[in-house]
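Long-time lurker. I teach an intro course on protein structure, and each term I like to show students one example going from raw sequence to a predicted 3D structure in token notation. This year I'd like something fresh instead of my usual example. Would anyone be willing to generate the tokens for the chain below so I can use it in lecture? Attribution to the forum is fine with me.
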Amino acid sequence: MAQFHKKTAVDASLKSVWEFHSTGHGLLQLTPSILSPRIDRIKPPNGPAHADISQTLTEGTKIVLSVQPAVVGPRITWEAEITERNYAEDQAHFIDIATNGLLPVWKHRHQFIAQDDTTVAIDHITYEPPPAVPTAFVRAGLSIGFVYRHHRLRSVFDAPSSVPDHK
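-- Reply from a regular --
Happy to contribute to a lecture. Here you go:
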């Protein structure tokens, strides 16, 4: 399995960063607009499917997200389930696992650690590229996407600092 890791300091409280990441609204804000992202369906573990991006995504929630890069070609659908979610005073995390998408294996751990007046946001992804697609190609795409994602996260909270990646 291949792995990808990105870490950034955000000038905001753990609670604020956690709440931002806890809804479909936050997910859409962190996805580049050139991809025309859309949440097609949210299925909570104990309730009907909907597309209300303001509701908290709890453990067991299934999400269907689609993108259409540069508004050409068919929409590409990605389905994931939140399999774990935990919030404590000094740190929090949630994990989403793809159940259908471009990559045969995708496990994404979103971790948040309180440090003084900031929060360190860490994305750790374990993945497997599709057959005949080089890992380096997927890693390059992840690098571009997560540089954008972390830059966008800092801009949401007006935080200019970044923590270097450690692999």
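Some talking points for your students: Helices lie at 14-21, 24-29, 135-156. Confidence is low (pLDDT under 50) at residues 159-167.
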